[in-house]
Amino acid sequence: MDNIKARGSIAQSETHVLSIKQGELKGVFSFSFRVESDIAPIAQLLVYTILPNGEVIADTEELDIENCFANKVNLSFSSAQGLPASNTSLKITAAPYSLCGLRAVDKSVLLMKPEAEFSPQSVYNLLSVKKIFSMGYRGPMNEDREKCINAEDITHNGIIYIPKQFISDDDAYSIFESVGLNIFTNSKIHKPHFCQPLPYPGMSMNYGAPGLASSRSLPGPIHGMATPLAGIDARGVYPSSSREDSSAMKVKETIRKYFPETWIWELIPLDMWGKHELAIKVPDTITEWKASALCLSGTAGLGLSPTISLTAFQPFFLELTLPYSVVRGEAFTLKATVFNYLSHCIRVSIQLEASSAFLAIPVEKNEESQCVCGNKQRTVSWAVTPKSLGEVNFTATAEALRSQELCGNKVPHFPEIGQKDTVIKPLLVEPEGIEREETFNTLLCASETGGSEKLSLKLPSNVVEGSARATYSVLGDILGSAMQNLQNLLRMPYGCGEQNMVLFTPNIYVLNYLNETGQLTEKIKSKAISYLISGYQRQLNYKHSDGSYSTFGDRDGRSQGNTWLTAFVLKSFSQAQSHIFVEDSHITDSLTWLSRKQKENGCFQRSGSLLNNAIKGGVDDEVTLSAYITIALLEMPLLVTHSIVRNALFCLERAWQSASEAQGSFVYTKALLAYAFALAGDQAKRNELLESLHKEAVKEEDSIHWQRPRKPQEVNELYSPHRAPSVDVEMTSYCLLAHLTAQPAPSSEDLSVATQIVKWLTKQQNPNGGFSSTQDTVVALQALSKYGAATFIKGEKAATVTVKSAGTFSEEFQVDEAKRLLLQEVALPEIPGKYSTAVTGSGCVYIQTSLRYNILPKKEGKAPFTLKVETLPKNCDGVSTHRKVQIHVNISYTGERPSSNMVIVDVKMVSGFIPVKSSVRKLQEMAQIQRTEVSTNHVLIYFEELTHHILSFFFSVEQDIAVKNLKPATIKAYDYYETEEFTIEEYSVPCSAESEHGND
After folding, report:
1. pLDDT band at 992; cut points 50, 70, 90
2. Which of 464, 324, 481 is nearest to 823 (CA)?
3. Most buried in the list 162, 241, 776, 926, measured by CB within 10 Å?
């Protein structure tokens, strides 16, 4: 009989009959078994038999099974090599009706982190049990051993035989036990054992058939039996690891300007035959593309394809070398290199297309053509000085010539394909100083006399010349701007668990709003759902094993779950279930964790830090936090009769009276309580809290909002923000939600107040439709979507918007139902300048003017952070000092609070320099630094908080491309939640005067 065990259970079992001659207990036979994915990666084969006398003999063998899958996935390109920008196809086959994710990336991307690549081995390493080594215990469920025998000397033919104890304790029972099987039998499975311990002999005798363990004693280890290995836990189970093992006369021209790192990223459903063919165009990068697929099938399960390659190649090609960006006034050397992979020499002409945006002077003597021989390269350089701001395109062409002019002593070859290669690459030319952005928003409604508004665009005295630019946009929907920028609502990084939620949650509100108002299109739905899916997957990186979430995840076990963030994620995941698949366990895990944080009085105990100090207000932290969590639970939604909600409301009911009577710093808490009671259906408490809140409201003309009584001091006039602090936006949004959540529906008075609140809220939006920070953006967009749905009237929109300057500029926009969600935009030519807007027809329109300009940094007033920057080495001797520099930063918080909120330090690179990524990653070894990111020409460093103690850190940068006349770069430290609290310092490369020689 044989058994095959895999993944801790019996996978196959079979009985074999072997005919043997009477009296001979030996023989040889063979048998076969199925090798499939269900017994991978390790199969334990057990063979045993029961002899006529009841004795059991057995043996075991461990087999390494290939890490394969039942769903066989195959990929193939129509050709293994192709010209850039040529057409090709990618064919995929797998189990019928599989859903397959396709990916093709530049080979260089895989080289950066090969160990993180998805592979069959990494999938099988996720198994909690791959094999069981032993039952690992002796207890009442084990088969009883036979009675012991007394050890007595035996005399035979005058020779005395003295009993000895064998070293090996192996018998048939131990074989079964070694593969994790327990036995219930009346057969002989134990070897005899003595009643008392005896001395061990120097050697022992063999009994039994070769390779089989019987109930008699056997010396040494059993053949093929697994032995304990390092890394096996107490149960005898191998621990899993999530990652191991990453026409002849006409010149044929290729124009290359598309150079992505990721070529294909698609989700493809297969047909009933399990096939699909994707028609694609090869990108312009000369590289090897690596493609793979992951497929899921309801019948065949998971499948992974082998990685395949397509080489984008042409016999000769051009490569441009230039920096990512420069500052106006800087100059650099633009290099155009021709690579010839033919076996013959070719004669090429290399030209740079002239442009008014830059001045280019050849570095070497300008020759009409160049010889480039087989497997060689040739470089031509220009000294470039940009003359205009913004994105400047450089267009260079290398063309093979039909020439009789010799290359050496041979006539140059003329290639049959790819005779002309044109490369277009952009360069960002930035103005000097620091960019500042102002946004002027208004919700303007047409009336019988026509709605109008005037706007004056002004610039400060220290504006950088030529840096000002302004755009004027018109939308027919209050959420139109946010819909256009769902993944760019904030001009801030998204590197933590809370920030990621601003990429996730607003999509829910947009989908709900458009669905409720009948405006949802397949295009918007598809985009929003894709954002939800990716945001959901990213957020799981910040989940702890206990079901909670924290800002930076369970990093090295140093952080604990955050009560506030867990409630935020729980609510959002629950609401997203109507749009995407969210595993129920993620909901129940978080709800269970929160229930454990609920105290006897119904309030919630805080766990983890509140990264925004501004919400530590109200009656006390406990009530404020409990109100937030109660709102999250009711919005999931849970019924008010649910035990957790019922107890939470008991907590709030005890605190609401003192909160409604309190003044000043309790505004935030009262706003939360008003919305919580509105959701719970307690209109009396909602009304009383709103009445109290309106006594403290700030009323300006036709708008209403709320603000903190002690707003933080502005750093200085130069840097003062145009938008309100995030906490003011957040509490005002909660008041709006409370007005709109009246039962059974908001009254005309509620809607009138709501309109006044909305007029203030919309003025605080940034150009992308977001606000200052994460939480204010999420809550405000939720409130605006609820207001939009409550006031939506289909078919009423037919407005004409006219914008005029004091000069000759005039532009007209038509906004109707067909253009309700269309962003209409125009650049304003006169800055500074005065403009007027008029709206005629019917309906309301959302108008936004965005003004951007650069200013020269100037220290004025008190800064919230001390920031000192030093670059080393200061000694400029030697070429190496131009190429590698250390940036040393000292920072501390100088504000009125004991500590800051979450702080981000944004280090912009000096032109031509790039960060040494290993030195940036090393910063995360510091306890105070939670995360680092490298983004284009910036390094971002996250601090959970800063105190009044000075914190020092450094990292390295190195020169990638030489740039002349280097301008200083900036380091900005800012409070993520109080964005008006920031400090900026400049730094220079110590040897910048000489750095132009760095790459010569």
Report:
1. low
2. 481
3. 776
